[in-house]
Amino acid sequence: MTVLATYVMAAALSPILFAALFLKAPLSSRSVGFFALMSAVVLIALSAALPQLIFDHERYLHDLWTAFETANKAASGLASSTDYFSPIGPVYDWVFRIAVAIRPLGATTVPLASSIFAFGVLMLALAALGRQLSLGTLGLVTLIAVATIVSPREPDMIFAQTTMSWLAPYNRWAAGLTAIVAAAFICPPGRRGSVEAVLLGVCLALVLLTKVTFGAALAGLLVAALVFRNVAWQHAGLVVAGSAAFLAVAEVLTGQVSANLADIRTVSGFAGEGWRLIKLLSQMGEAALWAVGSAALYLLLCEQLQQEKRVVPVLLMATAAAMAWVILMQNHWVSESPVYAVLPVVAAEWAGLFRRGEAGDWMPARLSGRILAGLAVLLALTYPARDGGTLIAQWARGLQYPENEKLAGTGQAGFLIYPRWFDEPDSKVVVDYKRMLDGLDLLRRAGADQPEAGPVLALNFANPFPALMNRPSPAQAPVWFQKGRIFSEDVHQPAEVLFSDADYVMRAHGDPAGADLWDIYGPYVLETYAKQAESPYWTLYRKKQ
After folding, report:
1. Residue 215 contacts by C-beta under 8 Å, 6 or more apart in sequence?
2. Are 129 and 138 in contact (CB under 8 A)?
3. Which end of the chain has less Cβ packing within 10 Å, N or C?
4. How many CB atoms lie within 10 A of CB 188?
5. Which whole-number Å values give the CA distances from 437 to 263, 407, 453, in the listed order?
6. What is the C-alpha radius of gyration for the chain, rounded to an integer number of angstroms?
7. Cα separation, 253 vs 41, whole angstroms
8. pLDDT band at 287, cuts 50/70/90?
9. How many Cβ atoms sit within 10 Å of the Cβ of residue 533?
10. What does the CA dihedral 522, 525, 526, 529 come to, rounded to 10 degrees?
11. Residues near 114 by Cβ (< 8 Å), separated by ≥ 6?
């Protein structure tokens, strides 16, 4: 289904390739840009209206619960970092607040949030890059970014083999916006003005407040663009000023910026947050291939279009590829960053492929020139075809399978595990799903879903229960517990803080994080809470009166 949907998406994008191959400038650029932007709008609409969220992955179901819990905290009025510990930037929290304000909480709040972020990125791209880039380049870069943001594809896989994971959406959000900012820094300056430079600063701040490592890499790219004189000093100053101003306003209005920095400072001290050297080295070849290939494409296009060859574009593309490679180092790296897909478009923009030449008609007459023009666009469309294809597959499967009756009426309504996993009852995803339903049944029998009941805190990697029961989340608890990332034996929240408003505690059995948390907090729970019930997967405690 996923492969077929990818072909369907590729066919839908074929007019873009046709325009690049056969139409003359400026009609070619206008056509490419128009079709690409319309395709981005369609993907945003599909994500916003997705009927079901289908999970099709062999592991990490508990990681998806973190998104559900983030949405539930947003619905409860809680703010990340100020109300609860979170090393993820507050943009994640802000977007989910908008999503739950638009539509009642459910599993499809996750794709709705992605569509909201993608729409914002599309608007920022038009405003910040509209005068700098030709319409063809603007459309292609924006389509790559939007497809990255709304895709349910597992971000660590090169091919769409394990799909529909919906894992850590903030990684895809940050990656998509990073592609926009990277294109702005490494494409020709065009007619970029002061307003556009300030808007790029806002974009940089948003990346920092979504995934700080991506933002730090972009700051490095800005310095490189300044050194290579692709960004003027005054524009670089405005980018920095715009970013600083946005961060300052966000801090004054929410207080979440400084609080998030404090949380990041805490997790940076964990050994598990170091560089993933082996993973980094394994991605070096891919980064080098995109950098060298894009540079070669640029030089060949210059020859065909009779443009002057320059060394700056080559240096900028190599730097951007290195940046995309370096940000893979942290937890939840995004393999084959969308920045790579932007590089052929950058090469085409520097070579003048989408711009009218002095003679007014530069489209190469030779077949080799047209093939190169098509290759540049084809490489750029590979990512949107694949990522958009996974979204189309979601729609097809959402229409094929009935809704999950067991989750009807819960805050996870619309969630469905792909049925093939039930043929493997011992698989991790099925075990996690059964654990979730088992815990929900235990809590309902204990009355934890009643209006007068207080929040439920799960000593588990993640806590699916507040969203399931449409009940408030525990205020101080993070959205996930991961040893070496959120807590350790030496660095963890005081029990009095973590359990401050938790009426019920669910102790997980068979979960490594649950075992580690019990080693730390078990004595406090036994002293403060009374055992209520037990199942193979959970032990339920309620606060003593």
Report:
1. 174, 204, 205, 207, 208, 209
2. yes
3. C
4. 20
5. 32, 9, 19
6. 24
7. 31
8. confident
9. 14
10. -160
11. 47, 149, 150, 169, 172, 173
Q: What size, in residues, is the chain? A: 545
Dig out the tokens for 354 from the structure: 């989408």
Preceding omega of 402 cis (within 30 degrees of 0): no
**Which residues on adjacent β-strands are paired with residue 538?**
508
Regarding predicted confidence, which is higher, 475 or 1? 475
Q: What amino acid is encoded at 30 in this protein?
A: R
Short-list 263, 260, 251, 185, CA closest to 218: 185
Structure tokens at 209: 């407040």
CA distance 47 to 536: 37
pTM of the model: 0.94
What tokens does 71 get?
């949405």
Which three-class secondary structure state does DSSP give residue 485? Answer: coil
- Residue type, position 201, single letter: G
493-516 burial, b at 16+ Cβ within 10 Å, e below that, comes to: bebeebbeebbbbbbbeebebbeb
Compute how many other C-beta atoms are within 10 angstroms of the C-beta atom of residue 280: 16
For residue 396, CA distances in Å to 51, 385, 391, 459, 532 come to 10, 16, 9, 36, 43
Is residue 374's pLDDT more than 50?
yes
- Could you tell me the two tokens for 54? 């289908």
**152-164 burial, b if ≥16 CB within 10 A, otherwise e?**
bbbbbeeebebbb
**DSSP β-bridge partners for residue 415:** 53
Structure tokens at 177: 């916006």
